[in-house]
Amino acid sequence: MENIKSIIISRTDNLGDVVLTLPLCGILKAIYPKIKISFIGKAYTKPLILLSKHVDEFLDRQDIILGKAILQADAIAFIFPDESMALAAKKAGIKTRIGTSHRFFHWFTCNKLVSFTRKNSDLHESQLNLKLLKPLGINTDFALDSIGQYYGIEPLVRSIKNKKVKLIFHPKSKGSAREWPLQHYFQLACKLDKGKYDIYVTGTEAEGNKIESEMPNFFQNSGAIDMTGKFSLHDLIAFIAQSDALIACSTGPLHIAAALGKNAIGFYPSIKPMHAGRWQPIGNNVKVFTLDKNCIDCKNTILCTCISNIGVEIVKQYLDNSYS
Known about the structure:
Blueprint: E1 6-10, H1 15-19, H2 22-31, E2 36-41, H3 46-49, E3 57-60, H4 61-65, E4 75-78, H5 83-91, E5 96-100, H6 106-109, E6 112-114, H7 125-130, H8 144-147, E7 165-170, H9 182-191, E8 197-201, H10 205-214, H11 218-222, E9 225-226, H12 233-241, E10 245-248, H13 252-259, E11 263-267, H14 276-279, E12 286-289, H15 305-308, H16 312-322
């Protein structure tokens, strides 16, 4: 590692995956404080990636493909396999190129291969990410409850004591996760004391339209405030930073809330590899709701009986106990 003064971390997939990669950058900086860390991501993830003080430079994946950005570093680690980036790194002459041995294209684009499987592992995604640091001589065995301290995200706003609890519902996931039913969110909003909670619903414009189509009177009858389609990622992060808690299934905003130190409340199926053990948010204020059973009934369906059976009252009780 003595000759590696700069490294590129490549994670070019979804928000939640990117959040769970940021601690890897913090661990690198903790061991090698002077190392320069560049991070390749999709353009829309830039505001999130640059939240971490451990990331020195953001590189836009599309700019690299179009030749508008040059890859320059002593090493590169492909946390998410990306054939185009692997080819670009080899062409750029980056000396140390690290990737998983389970992708065929890494055999001719990377010169440091790490053998492990994600799908059947009992480790958390953030722990699996760290496996890619093994060729650098770094101990990759970190306890899950220690990883959250390496985000490197400073508080975005001064702490303001609100009269009410600012609670965010993020009920949709673009179909990427098993969702707690919208009816449950509605019932929870109706049951919560409006004198104690201000409830906001976030999501894309398309997700807002989907909420309206599924439950046309959701906002009128629940008292929740519709914020869908109103935020860029930068603004959504700022909005979450000013909140107290966020409730969602396994989505990027849930992981962002956890990284910001907010009360991140998530719903997870007990199906591998979608279960909480693999994908729960990491942070000091995380609460996961999941059924304690080995579920295979919903493995090939969109609707998840296990998540549907997580009752509204138990979530309400958790919130009321947290903000009593």
